[in-house]
Each structure stands twice: as C-alpha cells, then as structure tokens.
C-alpha cells in the first residue's frame, strides 16, 4: 500500500507536468507533492495507535491532498491508499465518514477532468471505495481471528506445561519418598533397634552389645552415603553434568532461547576469573537465581532480549540478569524480605537464597525501561602466599 501511494503520487505529478508545462501553479503543485510525500513518510514514525499526534498527522495529510486535488484533479487517485490509512487508524464510523469525504473529492475531480457529466465517473469511485473498505474489514476480522487462535494456542501450551511440571513434581516427590523410605528411614529404624538392644544387653553381655553398636555404625555409614547421593541428585542438573557455573549458565541461556522459539533471545557473558573455585552452594544458588530471574522475564517482562553476565571480582561474584522488557516499579526492600518456607522463582525467593549466602540483591527498573537484577555474593579472601624468605 505504501508503494502504491508513491506510485500514484509520482504518476499524478508526471501527468500534470506533461499536460500543463510552465503554468503558474506548477511550483505549488511540486511543493505540495513533496510535502504530501514527506508527510506520508512521517506516518510510520508516529506509531500505529490513534494518539492525538497521529490523528493530527492524518488531518494534515488529508488537507494537503485535498488542496492538491483542487489544484490538479489528477491527484484524486491517491485517495485509495488514504482509504486504508483512515480505516486502520480511525474508529469505524469516523473511518467511513473519511472514506465518504475522500470519495466525494475523487468524483468531483474526475468530473472536472471529463468536462462534463459521465455516469461511469460518478459510480466507479464509490464502487472502488466500497471494495477497498470491504477488503480491509475482512482482512481485519481475519487478523483478529488469527490473534485469538494464537492466544488460545499459547494459553493451551502454558496450561500443558504447567500440568507437566505439576505431574513431574508429584512423580519426583513420590520417587524421593520411596527412596527415603527404602533407605534412610529403614536404616534409621534399624539403628534405633540395634542401639536399644545394645543398651539392654550392655551390662549382661558387652560383646553382644558392642556387636550391635558396630552394626549400627555400618548402617549409619551406608545411610550417610545414601544421603550424599540424594544431595548430589537434587543439585541443579546443569551443574551435576560438570563444567562449572559458567558452562551451566551458557547451557541455561541456550535452552531458554530454544524454548522461546524466536520470541526471546538470551545471551551469556563471563567477565574475569575466580581466584578459587566457587563453593558448590554458591554455584547452585547463582544458577537457581538465574533460572528464577529468567522465569520472571519469560512470564512477565514481554522482552525480546535478555543477558546473563557473570562477573568475578576479588571479593565477590556478581550475576546480572538484564532484559529489554516492559519494566516495573521495584518494590520496597521490606516487601522482599525472605519469609519462612518461601518457594518459587519470585524476587522474595531470590533474596532468600542470597540472604543464606550473605549476599545482596539490587533491582534497577522503571516502566518501559527494562529491568536489571543484580545478585552479589561475597567470597572469602584468598589465602596469602607464603613468603620465599624467613623474616629476620
């Protein structure tokens, strides 16, 4: 439609210059044509919503076109793209009134060019306007229908994902309860029975009592090994695969980008190197914080880009999660105090994890300006290297 407008405008100007060379109104026609083209180019810059600036632009655009039509009727056919501009921007009744006004100008211009009454020139422009309006209304309805279908599909996908997460959580809880019952609980029960038996027989048969204690000790060692296996299994999967926190964050960014299917792109950057390997609980907490923050970006921010930046400093490690989403007004620190039993991916859960590590959470955001969540975890100072010479 934009190409058609400039094609019709150029053809109308060329027709006027060829048929009316050297007339006094020629400079005005050229100036108004350039003004009309510049105004039309300005339209996309102002956005697509019917704001006051956008409505004023449309009024000036139509006014300049009307002056051109009065001076040179051949510019009347530029009205067809203006039909769609008005239909797209104005409410239905106002858009139809604008289409009717433009059609009247087109009919009057064609009759001036014909130098007489011609029924075809009177009927053809309204027919073209009616067809253009009908096509636009049909396309608009189709677009609304397609948006509704897409929204339904996205909502269904979210519901299926939530159902799968719930089912996975319940299955994992059941598996862990069975594992704990069959290992730790049974072992603790056996230890209790053996220690009670040792207590009863300690005075009468110390050898038997010591044997019970040794058996209970062996069961405790096995239970300790099982407990360590549970802890390892419950650690984040990306860390359990090896490669450290950096590799886990890169894997998380790639996975979030793939799952978003082009809606969200997540990048990961690492700056600096740690003076020592980060403790496992620090790595696990930072990875969980990144997962929670990206979950908030995915669900609430309506962002197209996000970045994970892990910075290793001498005394702390900082993880920044930034996005270009809609932003928000950050809550007061009191609203983010860690609560007992806090769960989920929200900001209180992130602050709770940092609170356990003695870290701090900083949130920088404003409506329409994106968000930066910064998690800083202090690190122990590096041990001083031994001097090569003994002090005198």
UniProtKB/TrEMBL annotation:
<dbReference type="InterPro" id="IPR011712">
    <property type="entry name" value="Sig_transdc_His_kin_sub3_dim/P"/>
</dbReference>
<keyword id="KW-1133">Transmembrane helix</keyword>
<keyword id="KW-0812">Transmembrane</keyword>
<keyword id="KW-0418">Kinase</keyword>
<dbReference type="InterPro" id="IPR036890">
    <property type="entry name" value="HATPase_C_sf"/>
</dbReference>
<dbReference type="Pfam" id="PF07730">
    <property type="entry name" value="HisKA_3"/>
</dbReference>
<dbReference type="InterPro" id="IPR050482">
    <property type="entry name" value="Sensor_HK_TwoCompSys"/>
</dbReference>
<keyword id="KW-0902">Two-component regulatory system</keyword>
<dbReference type="InterPro" id="IPR003594">
    <property type="entry name" value="HATPase_dom"/>
</dbReference>
<feature type="transmembrane region" description="Helical">
    <location>
        <begin position="121"/>
        <end position="139"/>
    </location>
</feature>
<protein>
    <submittedName>
        <fullName>Sensor histidine kinase</fullName>
    </submittedName>
</protein>
<feature type="transmembrane region" description="Helical">
    <location>
        <begin position="55"/>
        <end position="84"/>
    </location>
</feature>
<keyword id="KW-0808">Transferase</keyword>
<keyword id="KW-0472">Membrane</keyword>
<dbReference type="InterPro" id="IPR005467">
    <property type="entry name" value="His_kinase_dom"/>
</dbReference>
<feature type="domain" description="Histidine kinase">
    <location>
        <begin position="286"/>
        <end position="381"/>
    </location>
</feature>
<dbReference type="GO" id="GO:0016301">
    <property type="term" value="F:kinase activity"/>
</dbReference>
<feature type="transmembrane region" description="Helical">
    <location>
        <begin position="90"/>
        <end position="109"/>
    </location>
</feature>
<dbReference type="InterPro" id="IPR017205">
    <property type="entry name" value="Sig_transdc_His_kinase_ChrS"/>
</dbReference>
<dbReference type="Pfam" id="PF02518">
    <property type="entry name" value="HATPase_c"/>
</dbReference>
<feature type="transmembrane region" description="Helical">
    <location>
        <begin position="29"/>
        <end position="48"/>
    </location>
</feature>
